Amino acid sequence: MNPALIIGVFQSVFLVSLILLKKSKKQLPDWLLSGSLVAIGLHLLIHQLFALELVGTALSIFGSSVPFFQGPLLLLYVQSQTGIIDRMRNIHLLHLLPPLLLMPLFFIPTWKGSLVSIYNLAFVVQITGYILFSLRTIKKHEKTTLSYFSSTAGVDLRWLKFIIYGLGLVWGATLLTFFFQITFDFDPTNTYMVFFYSIAIFVYLIAIFGIRQKHVFFESDKKATSSKYERSKLSGEFIEATWIRLKTHLSENKVYLNPALTLAQLAEDLEITTNHLSQILNTKTTANFHDFVNGYRVEEVKTRIQSNRYNHLTLLAIAFESGFQSKASFNRVFKKIQGCTPSEYHESISLNHQRTPVPH
Q1: Cα gap 129→341, rounded to integer Å
Q2: pLDDT band for position 204 (50/70/90)?
Q3: DSSP per position, 30-57
Q4: Is it the case that residue 130 has pLDDT exceeding 80?
Q5: Which site in 4, 130, 163, 319 is 20 to 30 Å from 75, CA atoms measured?
Q6: Rounded Cα–Cα distance for residues 50 and 317 (Å)
Q7: Which residue has the higher pLDDT, 249 or 16?
Q8: Quick one: pLDDT band at residue 292, thresholds 50, 70, 90?
Q9: In this structure, are residues 5 and 48 in contact, taking their beta carbons and an 8 Å threshold?
Q10: What CATH number should be reported for the domain whose range is 236-355?
């Protein structure tokens, strides 16, 4: 009995149970991630049962086709997390058709000799395509979020990229081992061991970067725009007047202190559409919405650092009160805008205060 295989099966069962029991109302991403874990666990389980001669050839053939479901399920999961799809439609089921068409090939006796090569080639092409398409979808999502959200905490998908990279490493290691097996003709047991340990590690990665992340199953905000608003050419007077109103609103009401501020909320405050606000920002500044709002937050942090009223607070506390949601994003944004770290800026201000002569 293969311990790595058993670990992978039990991890898959545990994570699926955790996902399905976690919330009373499951969303599409929950079902798709569960489906992906079921596919992994089912593949490992069937292989173990076949090795113990507890199942026949037919079920083993089905198990050999299960890995082909992982790529489609991964892409559909990414698309559901990024808001591209909100429910399954018949056209999405076409992704699952190739694995079903592949199964009969295993019953053709004349193909047995070259079947492994055909199988491996088909899988390399399929899984590589789905991984690249999934990463491209996430990259586009990251760019979009910067145009609609002032903070990416809870809407970024960096953890999902880790999972996809892990999947790529799993199958890359497996296929590389198969190559060495064919080239150097070593015991295929080594190939299976690499594969099953890699799968067990991959499932564990899902546990770390998925279940432990508070936003792993977050319900994505709808895009802060609507298709009914067609892009229209705004007059120069309207752009200039609204730009002044926007800066005044930010300066006087300090709405940027709200860490969850979005383009939609700001547009509602100004009583204009998100489409128009986006056009105005694109016209008057080179920064996206995320950087534009965080510019005000950085200035707020600088003002508070220079004021004696906030000497009792740490830099991180000042950052949180200024609208930032995490230490990492605060440090990254501050250095990008100011050219130095928050600590370096704080030290320079402290030195200037020490050098300032006290008036008599």
Answers
A1: 40
A2: low
A3: HHHHHHHHHHHHHHHHHHHHHHTT-S-H
A4: yes
A5: 4
A6: 58
A7: 249
A8: very high
A9: yes
A10: 1.10.10.60
Residue ranges of domains in the chain: 3-211, 236-355
Burial of 263 (0-12, 13-18, 19+ CB in 10 A): buried
Stretch (H or E) spanning 79:
helix 70-81
Band of residue 345 on the pLDDT scale cut at 50, 70, 90: very high
Q: What is the pTM of this model?
A: 0.75
For domain 3-211, give the fold: Rhopdopsin 7-helix transmembrane proteins (1.20.1070)
CA distances in angstroms from 209 to 165, 168, 183, 205, 217, listed in the order given: 12, 15, 36, 6, 11
Positive/negative CA dihedral, 60, 62, 66, 67:
positive
DSSP assignment of 305-359 equals: HHSGGGTTS-HHHHHHHTT---HHHHHHHHHHHHSS-HHHHHHHHHHHHHHSPPP
pLDDT of residue 360: 46
pLDDT of residue 89: 84
Q: Which two tokens stand for residue 102?
A: 């592949």
Q: Average pLDDT of the chain?
A: 78
Average pLDDT over residues 241-259: 94
- The angle that helices 327-338 and 289-306 make with each other, rounded to 10 degrees, is 90
- Can you give the length of the chain in residues? 360
